[in-house]
Every structure is written in C-alpha cells, then in structure tokens.
Amino acid sequence: MPTAEFAEPQVLTSKQVDRQTFHSNSFVPARLVIPSIDVDTSIEAVGKDEAGRMDTPSDVNHVGWYQYGAKAGATGNVVLSGHLDDLNGPAIFANLDQLPIGELVTLQRKDQVATYEVVSVKQYRLDQVPLASIFAATQSKRIQLITCAGPYDENLGYRDRIVVTAHLIET
Amino acid sequence: MKKLMSLLGTLALAFAFVLPVSADGHENAMVRVLHASPDAPAVDVYVDGEVAVEGAEFKDLTDYLTLPAGDYNVEIKPAGDAETVVVAADLSIEAGKFYTAAAIGQLENIEIAAMEDDANFEDGKSKVRVAHFAPDAPAVDVAPKGGDPLFSNLEFKAVSDYGTLDAGTYDLEVRPAGATDVVKALDGVALEGGKNYTAFAIGLLEGEPAFEVLLAADGGEMAMAPETGQGGLAQTASMNWLLAAAVVGAAAAGFYVFRRQKQDA
C-alpha cells in the first residue's frame, strides 16, 4: 500500500500539450479496460451527489464517468470513479493501487478506442486531493481514476483517495 | 504571510480536532498561468515567495492550481534563477472563481495580465472570448468565414467579453479590424455544449515564434472526491482516523488537545 504523499501541481511541458486543439475526435466512453489489473467493465455517466461530491455508479462493479468532464480522446480530464469495496469485499477498483506506471488504460465505445498510459499513482488525504487538477480544464489529454484508500471509519468512511493519472497515447 | 498549504502540499494542519475541510472550490480559487511572451525565456512562477510553477515555456498553459482565496504577490523569474524578477503583480482572488494570469508582451515591456474565467456553463451552448496577446499584430476582428465579426477591433492586450454560440464546429477567421483579408484561418474549431473557451492569439506576425491561436477550455464543474468505498476490505473496524490524526498532529506540534471528559453528576 503506497504511503500517503502530496502531489505537486502538474506543470505542462511543451511536449505534452497538443497545440492545435481545434478538432475533436472524442466519444462518451462505454467500457473501461485495464488488462494489467483485470478490469473490463461498463461505464455509467454520473454527475454530483447531494453533498457536491462526484457521484459513483449504482453497480459497484461498474465505473462512473463524470459527465461534466472531458469525453474519451478529448483535451481535458476524463474522470472515472470506481468502488474499492462494498460491504462484503472487493469491488471493481480493489487493485487500482497496484496499477504499474506505463501500463495501458483503454476507453471504448463500439469501434472507437482511446488508449492511455499510466504516468502516476498517488494517494492523498481526502482534504488534500488536488481537485483542480482532476476536475478543471486542462490542455492535457488525460484520464483520472479515483477510488478509496487508507484506514476506514464507520462514520467517516475511508480517509484517503487513490488517484491514477494516465495520458492519451492514441485514439 | 499566508501559508499556501493546498498549493504546495505541505503537512496537514496540526490543530486539535481538525475537520476534514474538503477543497470543494468554495473556499479556494483556481488559477492557471500562461506564458505568452514571445521572447521571454522559460520561467518559474512564484506566489508569495514560494515557487508554484517551474520551467514554463512560451505557449505553456498550466493546469489550474488551487489557492485559498485572498491577495497574493505573483513574481515571474527566469527558470532556475531565484534572484531575478522579470515581472511581478499583485492578484486578488475570490473563492470559487477561476483565473488566468498571462505573462504578455516582449521582454522589454513584459507585464502580467490577469482575467477571470467564466465557469458558468449552459447546456448546448459554448461561451467564447478572444485574448489578443500578439504584440506586433494590429487590432483584429474574429469572424466566421466570410461573415460578420463576432468580436471587433480587439487591440493588443485586450480580452473580449464572452460571446455565446450554439455548440458546433466552426470555421473562423482572424482579420485586421474592419478588413476582409485573413491573418489566420481557424478551420474546424469544435465547441462543445456546456463548455466555455478562451482563444489566446499569441506569437509574432513578423518573426518567430509565429502567430497562432491557442484554444483553451475555461474553468470546470468542480466536485469533491467521490465516496468510493463501503469498508468491506477494511483491516481495522471502526478506527476513528480523524481523532487519531488530530491527536498525533497535536502532539507533534505541541498543541494542547482538549478532550471531552465524562462528568459524573
């Protein structure tokens, strides 16, 4: 289990930014595939819950796609939330913290595919999650995968969040 | 001098009974930085004396950084050189708002232009504005191909108001103000509904780096982190991590922790 650490704000280098972001070849993702941790599941569009948090999918073995964020393949943050566990045991993102740097994350809809490469896996205290890096606009083309981590309390829930960031490599 | 805890990710507060204050965008402001000076070198950006962005080159637009609302002194220094201040400005930022701070102009006249970014989104519509940050370009109009201008007579350093367009794909032109010849054609500009954009015109008409238009989505629909666990995998049941953290933190900082004591009546 990675120890908690605090991320630096991401600084984009010239190489990482697509200058001509006029054209959009993007799609609403329907499936998430991460072969290295045996994830192959459906995606549900989600908004915010009544407390203003990004919502989660109704099925603990699906993942939620933030409908106010970027579409697959687009410039911006594609944000996906998935459960670490349910009441009884592991759920879809139980092994998200094991995802190695450099492994692939694929979003699909019918014959459209967007492939991303993992660049970081970080764990944060809940109140230190870099929300602007995850939810605000960015010139980068990337995906953010979020689940719970750390110690659990019956009233407060999980203390931490894991955030995996992956950059688009091809559409 | 305020401590920039969220920005630099320093250690958590060591006060008693720390409540998990989520950075939901309502206590914090979001600020991004654009390097739009054609002849300035790569720069580091300092906020209240601490480095926030390193090695930003011409055309780099950073991610939004989270800063507690308030007043800040922003300094731009050559990358790796903490002694030289290229340009500085004071910035006042309000909670829940988004801002862009741009370094503009040739190095000899460089300044910081700060603007608020619109994060009020409309389904099916895109709000767009144009920022003229190209020092040697004349005043310009921005128009659909062959059509009447959407934005007129924008001079260097001007940022237009947002105009609202239906979501869609547009062929646009940048023209000298009042003229029909085309300085720059922008074909296939895809504007998504529920998003707002700034088109930054940067670079030089005469010389390098060449004039171009950088299109950026503005702001975002902020949310707090999702609740993605129900405890089925938890090792220890019912560990009050909040109190544990407060006790550890308080002990480390030497603060006195008040504990509620049972009063036997």
UniProtKB/TrEMBL annotation, chain B:
This is DUF4397 domain-containing protein. Residues 29-143, 147-218 form the DUF4397 domain. It holds the Pfam family DUF4397. Residues 1-23 form the signal peptide. The lineage of its organism: Bacteria, Bacillati, Bacillota, Bacilli, Bacillales. It comes from the Bacteria. Keywords: Membrane, Signal, Transmembrane, Transmembrane helix. InterPro entries: DUF4397. The chain crosses the membrane at residues 239-258.
